[in-house]
Protein backbone atom coordinates (compact mmCIF):
# COMPACT_ATOMS: atom_id res chain seq x y z
CA UNK A 1 0.00 0.00 0.00
CA UNK A 2 1.47 3.36 -1.04
CA UNK A 3 1.64 6.41 1.17
CA UNK A 4 -1.25 8.05 -0.70
CA UNK A 5 -3.46 5.03 0.14
CA UNK A 6 -2.92 5.36 3.89
CA UNK A 7 -5.36 7.29 6.01
CA UNK A 8 -4.33 8.95 9.27
CA UNK A 9 -4.89 6.67 12.29
CA UNK A 10 -6.50 9.03 14.80
CA UNK A 11 -8.38 6.26 16.63
CA UNK A 12 -5.25 4.41 17.83
CA UNK A 13 -4.30 6.83 20.60
CA UNK A 14 -1.51 5.86 22.99
CA UNK A 15 -1.53 8.98 25.19
CA UNK A 16 -4.36 11.29 26.31
CA UNK A 17 -3.86 14.69 27.92
CA UNK A 18 -7.21 15.08 29.71
CA UNK A 19 -9.23 18.29 29.86
CA UNK A 20 -8.24 18.93 33.49
CA UNK A 21 -4.48 18.87 32.67
CA UNK A 22 -2.35 21.98 32.03
CA UNK A 23 1.27 21.61 30.88
CA UNK A 24 3.30 24.85 30.88
CA UNK A 25 6.73 25.76 29.54
CA UNK A 26 7.53 22.27 28.39
CA UNK A 27 8.39 20.22 25.37
CA UNK A 28 6.18 17.19 24.71
CA UNK A 29 7.80 14.41 22.65
CA UNK A 30 6.24 11.11 21.67
CA UNK A 31 6.63 8.27 19.22
CA UNK A 32 2.92 7.42 18.86
CA UNK A 33 -0.46 9.11 18.56
CA UNK A 34 -1.46 11.69 21.19
CA UNK A 35 -4.88 13.18 21.96
CA UNK A 36 -4.97 16.55 23.73
CA UNK A 37 -8.13 17.65 25.53
CA UNK A 38 -6.30 19.87 28.03
CA UNK A 39 -3.99 22.85 27.65
CA UNK A 40 -0.34 22.78 26.59
CA UNK A 41 1.99 25.77 26.54
CA UNK A 42 5.14 24.61 24.78
CA UNK A 43 6.40 22.67 21.80
CA UNK A 44 4.95 19.31 20.66
CA UNK A 45 6.89 16.78 18.56
CA UNK A 46 5.52 13.36 17.68
CA UNK A 47 6.29 10.81 15.00
CA UNK A 48 2.68 9.70 15.19
CA UNK A 49 -0.57 11.53 14.68
CA UNK A 50 -1.92 14.25 16.93
CA UNK A 51 -5.54 14.99 17.81
CA UNK A 52 -6.43 18.33 19.34
CA UNK A 53 -9.85 17.62 20.87
CA UNK A 54 -12.69 20.15 21.07
CA UNK A 55 -11.51 21.20 24.57
CA UNK A 56 -7.82 21.17 23.62
CA UNK A 57 -5.70 24.33 23.53
CA UNK A 58 -2.08 24.48 22.41
CA UNK A 59 0.16 27.54 22.56
CA UNK A 60 3.36 26.58 20.79
CA UNK A 61 4.76 25.00 17.65
CA UNK A 62 3.78 21.48 16.61
CA UNK A 63 5.58 18.89 14.46
CA UNK A 64 3.85 15.58 13.68
CA UNK A 65 2.93 13.13 10.92
CA UNK A 66 -0.79 14.00 10.80
CA UNK A 67 -2.99 16.30 12.86
CA UNK A 68 -6.74 16.52 13.41
CA UNK A 69 -7.71 19.87 14.89
CA UNK A 70 -11.04 20.24 16.69
CA UNK A 71 -9.74 22.71 19.31
CA UNK A 72 -7.44 25.76 19.30
CA UNK A 73 -3.79 26.21 18.29
CA UNK A 74 -1.74 29.39 18.61
CA UNK A 75 1.52 28.45 16.90
CA UNK A 76 3.01 27.02 13.73
CA UNK A 77 2.13 23.47 12.63
CA UNK A 78 4.31 21.18 10.48
CA UNK A 79 2.74 17.88 9.45
CA UNK A 80 4.70 15.47 7.26
CA UNK A 81 1.45 14.26 5.73
CA UNK A 82 -1.98 15.77 6.52
CA UNK A 83 -3.50 18.65 8.45
CA UNK A 84 -7.27 18.42 8.96
CA UNK A 85 -9.06 21.39 10.54
CA UNK A 86 -12.61 20.48 11.54
CA UNK A 87 -15.55 22.88 11.74
CA UNK A 88 -14.72 23.62 15.40
CA UNK A 89 -10.95 23.92 14.83
CA UNK A 90 -8.96 27.15 15.05
CA UNK A 91 -5.34 27.75 14.00
CA UNK A 92 -3.54 31.06 14.45
CA UNK A 93 -0.16 30.39 12.86
CA UNK A 94 1.59 29.15 9.75
CA UNK A 95 1.15 25.58 8.53
CA UNK A 96 3.27 23.28 6.37
CA UNK A 97 2.04 19.91 5.09
CA UNK A 98 1.60 17.69 2.04
CA UNK A 99 -2.21 17.48 2.26
CA UNK A 100 -4.77 19.75 3.88
CA UNK A 101 -8.48 19.44 4.67
CA UNK A 102 -10.35 22.48 5.99
CA UNK A 103 -13.98 21.88 6.92
CA UNK A 104 -16.60 24.59 6.51
CA UNK A 105 -16.67 26.69 9.68
CA UNK A 106 -12.99 26.11 10.52
CA UNK A 107 -10.84 29.15 11.29
CA UNK A 108 -7.30 29.44 9.92
CA UNK A 109 -5.25 32.63 10.19
CA UNK A 110 -1.76 32.32 8.76
CA UNK A 111 0.27 31.16 5.81
CA UNK A 112 -0.04 27.68 4.27
CA UNK A 113 2.83 25.90 2.51
CA UNK A 114 2.04 22.67 0.63
CA UNK A 115 5.03 20.39 -0.01
CA UNK A 116 4.09 17.73 -2.53
CA UNK A 117 7.58 16.35 -3.12
CA UNK A 118 9.32 14.77 -0.12
CA UNK A 119 13.10 14.50 -0.02
CA UNK A 120 14.89 11.13 -0.30
CA UNK A 121 14.22 10.38 3.39
CA UNK A 122 10.47 10.98 2.95
CA UNK A 123 10.50 14.30 4.81
CA UNK A 124 9.17 17.60 3.51
CA UNK A 125 11.80 19.78 1.89
CA UNK A 126 10.85 22.87 3.88
CA UNK A 127 10.37 23.16 7.63
CA UNK A 128 9.29 26.63 8.82
CA UNK A 129 11.69 28.68 10.94
CA UNK A 130 14.43 26.04 10.57
CA UNK A 131 12.96 24.07 13.47
CA UNK A 132 14.21 20.55 14.08
CA UNK A 133 12.18 17.62 12.88
CA UNK A 134 10.38 15.04 14.99
CA UNK A 135 12.06 13.47 18.07
CA UNK A 136 15.45 11.90 17.58
CA UNK A 137 16.30 13.76 14.38
What does this structure look like?
This protein is 0% helix and 46% strand. By secondary structure, the protein is mainly beta. It has one domain. The strands form two sheets. Strands 2, 4, 6, 7, 9, 10, 12, 13, 15 and 16 form a ten-stranded parallel β-sheet that branches. It is globular, with a radius of gyration of 14 Å.
The SSE order reads EEEEEEEEEEEEEEEE
**Count of β-strands:** 16
- What general form does the structure show? globular
Biggest pleated sheet? 10 strands, parallel
Q: Alpha-carbon distance between the termini?
A: 26 Å
Beta strand %: over 45%
How are the SSEs placed, and which strands pair?
Elements (H helix, E strand, L loop, with lengths): L14 E3 L4 E9 L3 E3 L2 E8 L2 E4 L4 E3 L2 E3 L1 E4 L2 E3 L2 E3 L2 E4 L4 E3 L2 E3 L1 E4 L4 E3 L2 E3 L23
Parallel strand pairs: 1-3, 2-4, 3-5, 4-6, 4-7, 5-8, 6-9, 7-10, 8-11, 9-12, 10-13, 11-14, 12-15, 13-16
Summarize this structure as a short list of keywords or feature phrases.
single chain, 137 residues, mainly beta, 10-stranded parallel β-sheet, 6-stranded parallel β-sheet, 16 strands, 0% helix, 46% strand, globular, disordered C terminus
